[in-house]
Amino acid sequence: MRLDNQVWESRYHEAVDRLSREEAQWRTAESLLRQLVGCLGRAAHGAHDQVDPHIERLSGALQGPMDAMALEPLVNGLTEAMNNLGARPRGTHAERSIAITRVTRTEHGSSVQSALSRLVDRIIVLPRLADRANELRHDVADAGDLVALATCGDRLADLINEQRLGLQREIDALQAVLRHVTSRLDELSQYMSRELADQSTGEANGQALDASVAHEMRLLSEAALEYDDVHDLRERVNLCLETIAQCFSEFRDREGTRLTAYRDRAEKMRQRIEQLETERNTLQRSLEREHELAQTDTMIGMPNRLAYEKRIEAAFESWQTTTRPLSIAAIDIDHFKSINDTYGHTAGDAVLRIIGQALVKHVRPCDFVARYGGEEFIVLFDGADEAESMQVCERLRGKIQHLAFHASRQPVRVTASIGLAQFQPGDTPQTVFDRADLALYTAKNGGRNRCVAG
Ligand SMILES: Nc1nc2c(ncn2[C@@H]2O[C@H](COP(=O)(O)OP(=O)(O)OP(=O)(O)O)[C@@H](O)[C@H]2O)c(=O)[nH]1
């Protein structure tokens, strides 16, 4: 029971820690977003007199520690001013502003777009926000001008804000559960103390009975010596026996009352424990489900980057204590943007799903595949050295190349580039990941649809 409770409590602490870590990641994302909005502001500054004051106010506010709620009216003001520009009747002023917006977009817009797109790809949202994040990713890719990008930035800020609130709510809920469990444990410990006290009462009752019986026995043996007359002696003996019987009867009554109260308490406690057990199982199941969802990419239905980070942590720990080789492959679909642009995002999503499934199908059961983000996947080869992993990578590359995609009945060729790196003494998951990423970059620069070891 005690061990169970410890496990239970430590699970909650772990969950609270995890949520705090995720909240910290979100703070980093928020700060990136602030930088991005600053960039966007600088890019758009000078486009229009009516927009400039809003940009200046927002840029000023972004320098300080102002919270997202307080930034909202400033962002809304800017969005409204930008929208008003677009809604103006055609005329020289409107033409100028549209022209400037376009020029600005050409100079800075695409870098803002790709930065925003990378940011959306990097974030791991709560499962219930996944659809919104996905929709936003598509809208960022489709954004035609700075106004549309600014709106996307605004939506991303909302999403981040909601994510942080969501995480805070989860932390609060878990802490409430922890408080609840702790109070139940207190109840149990109070019950144990009462039982111990009750046991002492039982012992005291027994000792009192012993003392009374011993006393009567002593009187009896004295009477046996004192009384010559058998009649008197018999009377004395009878008296002693009655007293002893009386002592036993009182003892039985006291013990009976004590036992009834004890059974009552024990039954109540049994019910409480049963209830606690049911609550524990329900909460544990929902926690496990939440955990599983948090580590699943809902669009593809496979492990996400968070799952990869957990997995690599465990694999790295065991790699440090064994001589088993461990490698990481970073897989990136080639020219995926043009697949989206040509066939649409829904087709792009389908390609991602099919490639994800193909990867899972063609690695060994002991390997681990996750969607790292965007159009990038990652594979952990546990127990395979570079040469063996390279063979699997080549096989995966070939499988992707030969997957039969069609659009408007025309075959669409999809390829992927792969960067591979094996753990070497002194490595950390990050250094190996960086080497795999660099090798992927080399594969892209070398013409794509190839595997490179780093
Ligand atoms: N359909 C769809 N597109 C996505 C998703 N995640 C990221 N993308 C898109 O993937 C594209 C990645 O484009 P880039 O980073 O320019 O890379 P690329 O076009 O694959 O080119 P190379 O990697 O250099 O071969 C962007 O247009 C993203 O919007 C997604 O979940 N679904």
UniProtKB/TrEMBL annotation:
Domain GGDEF positions: 324-454
Cofactor: Mg(2+)
InterPro entries listed in its UniProt record: Diguanylate_Cyclase, GGDEF_dom, Nucleotide_cyclase, Rev_trsase/Diguanyl_cyclase
One example GO MF annotation: diguanylate cyclase activity
Keywords: Coiled coil
A Pfam match: GGDEF
Coiled coil residues, start to end: 259-293
PROSITE patterns noted in UniProt: GGDEF (PS50887)
CDD domains per UniProt: GGDEF (cd01949)
GO cellular component, one term: plasma membrane
SMART domains named among the record's database cross-references: GGDEF
GO terms of biological process kind: cell adhesion involved in single-species biofilm formation; negative regulation of bacterial-type flagellum-dependent cell motility
EC number per UniProt: 2.7.7.65
Catalytic reaction(s) noted: 2 GTP = 3',3'-c-di-GMP + 2 diphosphate
Superkingdom classification of source: Bacteria
Protein name: diguanylate cyclase
